[in-house]
Design brief:
Radius of gyration: 22 Å
Order of helices and strands: HHHHHHHHHHHHHHHHHH
Shape: globular
Helix content: over 70%
Number of helices: 18
Oligomer: single chain
Strand content: under 5%
Distance between the termini: 20 Å
Structural class: mainly alpha
């Protein structure tokens, strides 16, 4: 049970740093919708979403190489070599990126102020992701968790200063984001145990190792952007800027699922790497995945229960229609998270080329599907393309990773949970105009069935929480 306890303990530590911060970010959505118009919110959302696409190409996902190579390494000189080589590559990447930005800056077509914000966002977020991941790889989980709290508190304070008090609009939004990344990076540098960068430890062998590992991961980390933002641009092109603003708000609701997934994935990566060579890894990975999908279906189902209520009472009236976009977006996030779970098996096995292949196929299917569903079926179906892309990626990875580690799935249970969630989606599509009370009651009935199916997991969770409370 030690490995299960370690996974749980790491999850709790990361939860302390992530839950509070993610909840605050979600609570900021009404603030953004109040102080930004749907058009302005659509602009800044496109800018930050483009940042998410470009970031893996600047960092070359070297943070994942740092995590994989450093996590079980005891030799401090080797750790310094991995970190120094990765940072050197990123410095070269920064130089190339700066030249490209200067070229675009002198092209009159581009909004120069937004281009400058974009450049600063890329620079500070690149530093933050490398430094914070290195902190986690060193086993400093509590300091890593504290970093998440500090970053979001800075974001919160800056939003109130620049958006509410100074009423700076999109400028205030972007300045707040930049400062949150910058302060987080400075914190990581301060709490690290010594200085890990050394030019003398940069060598061709290490450079080759980290690049061969990290480069195939770029499409995987661009997958969410490619799927989600192909949707954004198709919505923008066929349905208009206002619809894109609605989509920007609707896409924040699935963040509730990502909130739990981010915490778990951080802990799961460490456990998956450490237990990869154990004799009972198949049983361990299978049991973890079962509890994983049960929990996520619970969260996703509950989101559809409260979805319409949230948009009725917590979101500005101008964004109310966005609630209809949420169901398919939540389903797509479910299968994205299932795919990410299996992707960890690839990285544990250093099979990052398989990550590339499955991500590329899934992204292609999602993008092509968007051009069919969105123009012809409208706003309610904006997430269908992403659903198809992530589902096929998950199915491919499930089949392929069984050659490495056989993941046993209880097919009947998994099918019924999917079926119930699809019925919840159909309720939103078929009865969009039914009263809030009757709509919520129908969704709640289906959620209760999900509770019954996952009662074994819920019982285990309650026992675990009771033990944690007693320890505290």
């Amino acid at each position: 049970m030690d490995k299960y306890n370690k996974l749980i303990n790491n999850s709790f530590v990361f939860a302390i740093g992530s839950f509070g911060s993610k909840i605050i970010v979600l609570l900021l959505v009404p603030l953004y919708t109040h102080y930004l118009t749907s058009e302005n919110y659509g602009v800044v959302d496109l800018l930050t979403s483009t940042q998410a696409l470009v970031l893996p190409f600047i960092t070359l996902t070297l943070e994942q190489a740092i995590l994989r190579f450093v996590v079980n390494e005891q030799d401090r000189e080797k750790i310094k070599s991995y970190f120094s080589s990765s940072v050197f590559i990123i410095f070269v990447s920064f130089a190339i990126f700066t030249v490209l930005i200067l070229i675009f800056y002198y092209i009159e077509y581009w909004d120069r102020k937004l281009l400058l914000y974009f450049y600063l966002l890329i620079c500070v977020s690149s530093c933050q992701v490398i430094l914070s991941t290195h902190l986690r790889a060193l086993g400093k989980s509590k300091l890593y968790a504290l970093n998440g709290i500090i970053q979001v508190l800075v974001l919160l304070c800056c939003n109130f200063l620049f958006l509410v008090y100074l009423k700076m609009g999109t400028d205030g939004y972007l300045i707040s984001l930049i400062l949150s990344y910058l302060i987080s990076s400075i914190y990581c540098l301060i709490v690290m145990d010594g200085f890990y960068f050394s030019t003398s430890l940069i060598n061709k062998l290490t450079l080759k190792m980290v690049l061969l590992f990290s480069i195939p991961l770029i499409p995987n980390y661009s997958m969410w952007w490619l799927v989600n933002n192909s949707t954004r641009y198709v919505v923008l092109g066929f349905l208009g800027l206002q619809a894109n603003g609605l989509f920007a708000v609707a896409s924040k609701i699935p963040m509730c699922v990502n909130m739990f997934v981010t915490v778990f994935q951080q802990a799961w990566q460490l456990s998956a790497f450490e237990e990869f060579n154990s004799s009972d890894r198949s049983k361990y990975y299978s049991s973890v995945f079962r509890y994983y999908y049960q929990f996520l279906f619970l969260v996703a189902s509950f989101l559809l229960v409260i979805n319409k209520f949230i948009f009725t009472y917590a979101i500005s009236d101008g964004f109310y229609e966005a609630w209809k976009m949420v169901p398919f977006l939540v389903l797509s996030v479910l299968y994205q998270t299932f795919s990410a779970f299996l992707g960890t098996i690839y990285t544990a096995n250093f099979s990052t080329r398989s990550v590339f292949l499955t991500s590329a196929i899934g992204a292609a299917i999602a993008i092509v599907s968007n051009f069919f569903f969105i123009p012809f079926l409208g706003e309610e179906f904006v997430g269908v393309g992403a659903c198809l892309g992530f589902f096929i990626m998950w199915a491919m990875r499930l089949h392929d990773t069984r050659k490495i580690v056989y993941i046993l799935i209880r097919k009947y249970e998994f099918f019924v949970l999917n079926l119930l969630f699809v019925i919840q989606i159909l309720l939103a599509l078929i009865f969009p105009d039914v009263s809030l009370f009757h709509y919520t009651a129908l969704q709640l009935f289906l959620f209760i069935i999900v509770l019954f199916i996952t009662k074994e997991f819920i019982t285990s969770l309650l026992v675990m929480l009771k033990k944690r409370i007693l320890i505290l």
